[in-house]
Design goal:
Strand order of the largest sheet: 1-2
CATH class: Alpha Beta
Largest sheet: 2 strands, antiparallel
Radius of gyration: 15 Å
Strand content: 15-25%
Oligomer: single chain
CATH topology: Rossmann fold
Length: about 100
């Protein structure tokens, strides 16, 4: 449903995800891409990149101000590693290598 005449969530994803994937393709090996956007746009991108049906995208909780989500990619595709994170991960004891 269009809210206030704006874009549908699927239209936002149609517009935003190709931009992100193009930037990912240009990353050097092991590089990191930081995407800054409105939480609703981020939610649509995450849902689309994870291959979820649009009606499931709202199941992701909101993205608080100054928080982030982390996606990683492996041979099976994209995975959501963190969502709505607000602090950097703490090191695990024994990971001092």
């Amino acid at each position: 449903m269009r809210r206030g005449g704006g874009e549908l969530a699927t239209e936002v994803a149609d517009r935003a995800v190709p931009v992100v994937l193009d930037a990912v393709d240009k990353l050097p090996e092991g590089g990191t891409l930081v995407v800054v956007s409105h939480g609703g746009t981020i939610r649509t991108m995450i849902g689309r990149m994870l291959g979820l049906e649009p009606e499931l995208w709202e199941r992701f909780g909101g993205l608080s101000n100054c928080c982030w989500s982390v996606l990683g990619q492996d041979s099976r595709g994209w995975r959501l590693l963190e969502h709505n994170a607000g602090t950097l991960p703490q090191p695990v004891i024994g990971d001092e290598t």
